[in-house]
Amino acid sequence: CGIFGAIGLADAANFVALGLHALQHRGQEAGGIVAHDPQKGFNSAHRFGYVRDNFTKASLMESLPGPLAIGHVRYSTAGSKAAVIRDIQPFFGEFSMGGCAVAHNGNLTNAESLRRELIEHGAIFQSGSDSECIIHLMARSFQKTHADRIADALRRVEGAFSVIAMTRTKLIGVRDPLGVRPLVMGRLGDQGYVLASETCALDIIGAEFVREIAPGEMVVIQDGKIESSRPFHPATPRFCIFEHVYFSRPDSQIGGRSVYETRHQIGVELAREAPVEADLVCPVPDSGTPAAIGYSHESGIPFALGITRNQYMGRTFIEPTEHIRNMGVRLKLNVNKSLVRGKRVVLVDDSVVRGTTSRKIKEMILDAGAAEVHFRIASPPTAWPCFYGVDTPDRGKLLAARMSEDEMRDWIGVTSLKFISLDGLYRAAGEAAGRNAACPQYCDACFSGDYPVAPSDQIGKGFEM
Ligand code: 5GP
Ligand code: SF4
Ligand code: MG
User: DSSP for 393-447?
Assistant: First the structure.
């Protein structure tokens, strides 16, 4: 998901809408904004669909007045699709000291047991979302301020969370102790501050990047002042390495590094680890493009856009009829036949999950007359599900959980298949000595099975670590 908050700006909801638009890649299913105005109080709007189709309408934006607002764009994960409008964040609660809205990015690994416990003690849940636990835990805290109640609540949850919250006067940002999901702060004008999942959302409104919220840090922003605290036991940070590979936008900066640079460097590392004699390097657009440029640069094999992506392919278009569904990847991607005919093609993509996309793309490339297809993947084999907020299917549906690299090559049907090594990925992300096995610098559980937070809700459901 993507989260954004703004304080000290006239009609803050407009800035939030723009910020969410820049974060749309983090969630396309739905979006919501809560705003507060000293005269008109809290107002909110929650809508299915893209930000641009909802939060651009003057009538809607006029209903969200005030200098303080937060918002959320929702990512559909298989198990927790927003079925009703009540599932859309931010969530809101009234407390003795006033209202508070909360937007959460990440996934809580003990949400199911917390929910059961909270319901037993009288909580009335409005949604099916794990994030709603935060509001109910706040309600049960005896702390005097919203911020202290948020800290209390977040000390009870496990998993990954970057949270943006607002009261009548304060904008609050928190990151879990491992800092699995990103969260940054920006400044705009004299008194304006914003919090966002990624720096690309600061750029769109012309805000200046101030700094990242640190893992385990809470910031409370009011009247142009920032208070910082550390409400959790300190831990060694484990930022999600998949943010670098796929999830974040390439024009964002993470930990002082450009995401594009890291992806480009992954391609360079891949060319060193898995060279091949070929005529063309083609990305699977758009996620494979920076790595393909890096591969081409390092190998000297010419880069070409052998596949074109239809930019207007919305998610809602995917399902209409069985016949169209079966056309699958063709609706989105098309091979530039005259480019690839007779060529030995290095095809670069970011990841192989189920493998179904890879298989169809290979078919299209071979149908177009390519002589050989050498598949190069900008991440190690995805052999484990993510429980921290990235949508991966059950372990049984992950190709790499069932097959060796050679078996995957044969199943996809390509001439060769190579994944970047975990060490190569770490080097590309700026860790010159590679992965520190004793104390890994990132979360890489979907590749390594090394889960930094035990997925406790999974216990007893047939998931084995
Ligand atoms: P596969 O067919 O192997 O399951 O799909 C792999 C493709 O899915 C890759 O091209 C990659 O860009 C894309 N992908 C990787 N991770 C995610 C994700 O978390 N969500 C979505 N929607 N697509 C993903
Ligand atoms: Fe990121 Fe993978 Fe860890 Fe999930 S399991 S947080 S996708 S590195
Ligand atoms: Mg892709």
Answer: --GGG-HHHH--HHHHHHHHT-SEEEE--HHHHHHHTT-TT---TTS-SEE-HHH
Tell me the pTM.
Answer: 0.95
CA count, 13 A, side-chain hemisphere, 390: 25
Taking only the tens place, the pLDDT of each residue in 375-421 is: 999 999 999 999 999 988 889 999 999 999 999 999 999 999 999 99
350 is in an annotated binding site: yes
Stronger pLDDT, 161 or 320, i.e. the higher one:
161
ipTM above 0.90, yes or no: yes
Residue whose pair of structure tokens reads 């099916």 in the numeric block: 128
Fold identical between 2-237 and 257-458? no
Domain at 257-458, CATH from 1.20.1250.20, 3.40.720.10, 3.40.50.2020, 3.10.450.590: 3.40.50.2020
Is the CB of 218 inside a 6 Å radius of any atom of ligand 2?
A: no
Backbone angles phi, psi at 334, to 5 degrees: -140, 140
Distance 350 CA to ligand 1 centre (A): 8
318: pLDDT strictly greater than 50: no
Among the bound ligands, name the one nearest to the CA of residue 353: 1
- Report how far ligand 3's centroid is from the alpha carbon of 83 (Å): 26
316, pLDDT greater than 50: no
- Which of 254, 420, 444, 458 for a ligand 2 pocket mutation test, highest count of atoms within 8 Å of Cβ? 444
Residue boundaries of the structural domains of the chain: 2-237, 257-458
Among 1, 100, 200, 282, the active-site one is 1
Alpha carbon of 200 to ligand 1 centroid (Å)? 21
Active site residue 1: yes
| Strand ranges in 106-178 using DSSP code E only, listed in sequence order | 162-166, 171-175
Which CATH code, of 3.90.1140.10, 3.60.20.10, 3.90.940.10, 3.30.230.10, is assigned to 2-237?
3.60.20.10
